[in-house]
Amino acid sequence: MWIERWEPEDERFWKEEGGERVARRNLVFSVLSEHVGFSVWSLWSVMVLFMGPEYGIDAAGKFFLVSMATLVGAVVRVPYTFAVARFGGRNWTVIAASLLLLPTVAAFVVMEPGTSYSTFMLCALLTGVGGGNFASSMTNINSFFPLREKGWALGLNAGGGNIGVPVVQLVGLAVIGAGGGPRVVLGVYVPFVVLSAVCAYLFMDSISSVRNDTGAVKAAVRDPHTWIMSFLYVGTFGSFIGYGFAFGLVLQTQFGRTPLEAAQLTFVGPLLGSLVRPVGGRLADRFGGARITLGNFLAMGAATGVVVIASLRESLPLFVGAFVALFVLTGLGNGSTYKMIPGIFQAKAEARGLTGEDAAAQGRRLSGAAMGLIGAVGGLGGLGINLALRQSFQTVGSGTGAYLVFLAFYGVCACVTYVVYLRRPVARTVATGEAEAGAGDRSSLRYVDV
């Protein structure tokens, strides 16, 4: 169904004319589609656990397989973002969900010893289409909700999608525990792919006023905050997806865990990280995304320091505990950073003299264009994590070198968050919607509580 009039910032439209009800219905089925997409994108984090010596692929080769899935999933986020306006949110969700059949069926056909590494690589590359679902889903839901609820809505949408990572790992654990093979995991997902496409067709809507705006895209590309937020999103979402893909393989390679032992531990961190993502959005709604993001990066640095100690001591309990904490923090940071994006662009619109719905519309226009770019760059962080781990294991035989790099990176992210968004507040507390007299210069383009 195409919706001709959509004014979520209008309280009467939202509460009395059914806007909230329609938005929440679309959110539910957007979460379903994105959830299945994340599961398909994460398939190779499970498939590599099944690939024993008979497959003839070493640890470095397995890290490279999951890296390529991450790479494609990040790159396709850009066209997926613009596809929402081109085809409509409902229509594109149906198409994107249907495309998930391609990597699932392809892997089902070839998943056995004796298959060439290049064939496995092609199948891993195909699963990247699942990563694109995130960008189109977030862009679509961003258009449905008013600014005051974006942190919660985007956090819930993304968190429900992110849970696809631990769910596919739980399915893998169940299959391994039952003595089944990798084709069983793949077979489980085919009907769910079909279900998500059918539900999108039956229950979702498209907003006719959402159109691709080349001017907005150009403005988003030129705006330094698009790239600053992309950098911060590398630290949050890039860490989540990178660790989610690599954790089981690290447990096998560095700590000698069997596939079953690794699978028993792999899903816990991604599950908790996914569940707390909406909490990160809610905290950002209440206290300001920049404050929550800064505290989060500091805590991620501390947790990574513990990971380094655990790696040097070869302490599996300490290592797993610290990594679970890292996953939780990446989830919180995902929610808070995504809350910042629409807040930043609306604050900039108001700093230029726009007010009310005009400022909100301008914020939606630019943040919608920026989200695809930010999501794509953030996804590349997962590629960086897997390549860093691959290099570290090849060079020193453990992941310690990579963990030290991650520790330094989180320190830089914390500094950037503080300097750009907290050190010199301007004139507005976007999280609460209250205008204040600012202490800084509006031309500095620095914002508090975005």
UniProtKB/TrEMBL annotation:
Keyword DNA-binding among record annotations: no
Cell compartments where the protein resides: Membrane
Primary residence: membrane
Membrane topology, from the record: Multi-pass membrane protein
Keywords, comma-separated and alphabetical: Membrane, Transmembrane, Transmembrane helix
Keyword Repeat: no
Gene Ontology molecular function terms on file: nitrate transmembrane transporter activity
Segments passing through the bilayer: 27-51, 63-80, 92-111, 117-135, 156-178, 184-204, 225-250, 262-280, 292-312, 318-338, 369-389, 401-421
GO-annotated cellular components: membrane
InterPro entries reported for this sequence: MFS, MFS_trans_sf, NO3_transporter
PANTHER family hit by this protein: HIGH-AFFINITY NITRATE TRANSPORTER 2.3 (PTHR23515)
Protein family (similarity comment): Belongs to the major facilitator superfamily. Nitrate/nitrite porter (TC 2.A.1.8) family.
Protein name: MFS transporter
Organism: Streptomyces venezuelae
Source taxonomy: Bacteria, Bacillati, Actinomycetota, Actinomycetes, Kitasatosporales
